């Protein structure tokens, strides 16, 4: 009933060491096989276990658990369970269950939450695992018997799909069709809702909204006794309506102009139209850098025929950076280019560099830190290519006023370093990731700091990144959330600091992607409040009066068909003849597998991906045989063990150039 998850042994170790290795690996507990069966009703189980605290708290706490017919209830004590004062319930039949015997750990991935449990006693651990197995089978059998094939619920189907890769493939195809239809229906409903608000706008007087795109005028929101969350939702609805109305017909515009909302937002709407027009003023592939491309050569491939369960089932609780994935699961960008995406809204740093007040400067810095997550909203369906050791990427953007360079400085562990400069700021970071797959979801935990220096003020800001989690890895519509706390400080001044919290979604609430924060002085007194949504926009101040300081750029046409890329992301892998002549042979834009995937040639991309990965393994073997280590070309280790630029890339690019650049053959 279970499948071992452990690496194959390559040595003639003793049987005891093999046994210890198995004990220290994760074991996924399989569920019901072959449809309905006669599963005897299990006995109830109760007792205390250690449960890992939910974010943002750390550590473990003791909780009383009561297992009844496949439902695991928990509370602070037994009396609370009897009184119904529960902290939560877990349907073990609909959860992916994994155990680690040596550590006496039990993990239950219930999709909306991942529950990490631990038991100190080996005897109790074995007892709980045995009971959970029995209850899980009983619950799955119960679900199967109570639902006909027609009315079977989506969650119950997931349980059955996990039992067979054939079922998984078939159901994945069915889900793809359903998801497309639901998406179309959702768009229709949103359009109808917008039209309803538009035609009824003259009668609306309970809500009056005025704002300006550049934040020079306050956003006034007149509403009585509304919470911060409801205000955020109202603002979101208003902006969404405005974006749809930009493309309305002339007759609809006549009606819309009668609305008080139209006159209050007319200035910003005009600016938005101009901005959209400028952004869409582009040419097809191969155009000059003054006019960037606005679409990819080919849409993203169909991945419904790939069984992720067959790939991931042996990697529960493991780091996925070492797991080989089919090229169809990638997007035609890599991690180095993803780092550059964080500069899409670099104008926030430019504004900070021209803001005299240190507390307002911190507001712009904090908003910039949030804006870096916006592009991920539509990107849960794919993963970036893993850069090979020594791979580089440059992005020279005179239109944005910065030049950027990145390099893969380590392979195991994977470390990507980057550096960007403009006349207003210096930006750098080295990022390391820990990826964990938990059965239904994948957590991405970044390690490292992001740095921004504003030379004009001598400010040096640094901050951490938050945890990201991709849900519905195996089935259903994948979605991504970010949660945790960003702590921003100026290492050259203690005058102010900022904390920004990405709020974890709750399954009983419709609120998603909310962010809130505060800029405080050296005594901890709040000077500015921040709130918004990381995929929409940010505001500072307190309702009923607040200022809009950032809004996500409009998505390009048909973005769903092109990996969910933003306009900026579409441009990152663009390669024109003039730029190509200036690039080193290690630049990501010259990588064959990534380029072939972008062009829609999936089969050739897979062949090249395997060839490039083999070349990397051979280079590593040569280094090991000669007792050598890889030395990055454009970054060096600093005293605090982080990677920083050695400031040679752009000088070398200028003179003598990269035509005779001595580097290993990466592809």
Automatic annotation (TrEMBL):
Membrane topology annotation: Peripheral membrane protein
Any Gene Ontology CC annotation: perinuclear endoplasmic reticulum
Location of the region described as Disordered in the Swiss-Prot/TrEMBL record: 1-24
Subcellular location(s) per record: Cell membrane; Cell projection, Filopodium tip; Cytoplasm, Cytosol; Endoplasmic reticulum membrane
GO molecular function, one term: sterol transfer activity
Transmembrane regions: none
InterPro entries the record matches: OSBP_sf, Oxysterol-bd, Oxysterol-bd_CS, PH-like_dom_sf, PH_8, PH_domain
Superkingdom of the source species: Eukaryota
GO biological process, one term: bile acid biosynthetic process
Sequence ranges of Low complexity compositional bias: 1-16
Gene3D superfamilies named in the record: 2.40.160.120, 3.30.70.3490, Pleckstrin-homology domain (PH domain)/Phosphotyrosine-binding domain (PTB)
Key words of the record: Cell membrane, Cell projection, Cytoplasm, Endoplasmic reticulum, Lipid transport, Lipid-binding, Membrane, Nucleus, Phosphoprotein, Transport
Residue span(s) of domain PH: 42-137
UniProt KW Cytoplasm keyword: yes
Complex formation: Homodimer. Interacts with RRAS. Interacts (phosphorylated form) with VAPA. Interacts with OSBPL6.
Sequence similarity: Belongs to the OSBP family.
Stated role: Phosphoinositide-binding protein which associates with both cell and endoplasmic reticulum (ER) membranes. Can bind to the ER membrane protein VAPA and recruit VAPA to plasma membrane sites, thus linking these intracellular compartments. The ORP3-VAPA complex stimulates RRAS signaling which in turn attenuates integrin beta-1 (ITGB1) activation at the cell surface. With VAPA, may regulate ER morphology. Has a role in regulation of the actin cytoskeleton, cell polarity and cell adhesion. Binds to phosphoinositides with preference for PI(3,4)P2 and PI(3,4,5)P3.
Protein name: Oxysterol-binding protein
Annotated organism of origin: Cyprinus carpio
Organism lineage: Eukaryota, Metazoa, Chordata, Craniata, Vertebrata
Gene behind the chain: LOC109049881
């Amino acid at each position: 009933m279970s499948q071992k998850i452990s690496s194959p042994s390559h040595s003639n170790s003793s049987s005891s060491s093999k046994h210890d290795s198995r004990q220290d690996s994760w074991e996924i507990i399989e569920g019901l096989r072959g449809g309905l069966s006669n599963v005897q009703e299990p006995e109830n189980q109760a007792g205390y276990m250690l449960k890992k605290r939910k974010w943002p708290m750390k550590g473990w706490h003791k909780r009383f658990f009561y297992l009844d017919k496949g439902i695991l209830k928990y509370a602070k004590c037994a009396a609370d369970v009897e009184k119904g004062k529960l902290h939560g319930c877990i349907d073990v039949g609909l959860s992916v269950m994994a155990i680690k015997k040596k550590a006496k750990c039990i993990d239950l991935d219930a999709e909306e939450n991942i529950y990490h449990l631990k038991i100190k006693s080996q005897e109790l651990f074995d007892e709980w695992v045995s009971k959970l197995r029995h209850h899980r089978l009983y619950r799955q059998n119960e679900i199967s018997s109570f639902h006909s094939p027609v009315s079977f619920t989506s969650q119950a189907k997931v349980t059955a799909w996990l039992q067979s890769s054939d079922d998984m493939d078939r159901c994945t195809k069915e889900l793809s069709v359903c998801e497309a239809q639901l998406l179309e229906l959702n768009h229709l409903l949103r359009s109808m809702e917008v039209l309803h608000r538009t035609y009824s706008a003259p009668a609306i007087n309970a809500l009056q909204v005025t704002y300006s795109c550049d934040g020079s005028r306050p956003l006034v929101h007149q509403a009585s006794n509304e919470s911060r969350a409801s205000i955020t939702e109202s603002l979101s609805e208003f902006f969404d309506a405005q974006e749809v109305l930009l493309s309305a017909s002339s007759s609809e515009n006549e009606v819309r102009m009668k609305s008080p909302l139209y006159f209050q937002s007319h200035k910003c709407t005009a600016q938005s139209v101009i901005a959209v027009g400028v952004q869409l003023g582009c040419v097809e592939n191969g155009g000059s850098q003054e006019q960037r491309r606005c679409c990819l050569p080919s849409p993203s491939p169909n991945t419904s025929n790939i069984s992720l369960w067959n790939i991931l089932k042996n990697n529960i609780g493991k780091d996925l950076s070492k797991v080989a994935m089919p090229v169809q699961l990638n997007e035609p960008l890599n991690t180095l280019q993803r780092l550059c995406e964080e500069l899409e809204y670099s104008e926030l740093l430019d504004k900070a560099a021209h803001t005299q007040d240190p507390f307002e400067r911190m507001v712009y810095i904090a908003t910039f830190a949030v804006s870096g997550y916006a592009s991920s909203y539509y990107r849960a369906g794919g993963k970036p290519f893993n850069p090979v050791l020594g791979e580089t990427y440059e992005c020279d953007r005179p239109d944005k006023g910065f030049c950027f360079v990145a390099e893969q400085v380590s392979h195991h562990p994977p470390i990507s370093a980057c550096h960007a400069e403009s006349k207003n700021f210096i930006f750098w970071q080295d990022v390391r990731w820990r990826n964990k797959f938990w059965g239904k979801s994948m957590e991405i935990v970044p390690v490292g700091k992001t740095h921004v220096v504003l030379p004009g003020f001598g400010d040096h800001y640094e901050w951490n990144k938050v945890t990201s989690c991709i849900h519905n890895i195996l089935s259903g519509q994948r979605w991504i959330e970010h949660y945790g706390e960003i702590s921003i400080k100026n290492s050259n001044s203690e005058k102010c600091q900022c904390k920004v919290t990405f709020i974890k979604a709750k399954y009983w609430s419709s609120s998603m992607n909310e962010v809130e924060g505060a800029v405080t002085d050296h005594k901890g007194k709040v000077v500015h409040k921040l709130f918004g949504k990381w995929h929409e926009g940010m505001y500072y101040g307190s309702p009923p009066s607040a200022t809009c300081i950032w809004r996500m750029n409009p998505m390009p046409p048909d973005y769903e068909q092109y990996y969910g890329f933003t306009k900026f992301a579409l441009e990152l892998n663009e390669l024109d003849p003039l730029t190509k002549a200036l690039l080193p042979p290690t630049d990501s834009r010259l990588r064959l597998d990534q380029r072939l995937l972008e062009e829609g040639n999936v089969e050739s991309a897979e062949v090249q991906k395997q060839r490039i990965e083999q070349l990397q393994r051979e280079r590593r073997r040569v280094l090991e045989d000669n007792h050598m280590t890889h030395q990055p070309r454009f970054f060096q280790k600093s005293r605090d063990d982080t990677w920083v630029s050695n400031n040679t890339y752009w000088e070398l690019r200028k003179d003598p150039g990269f035509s005779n650049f001595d580097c290993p053959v990466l592809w």
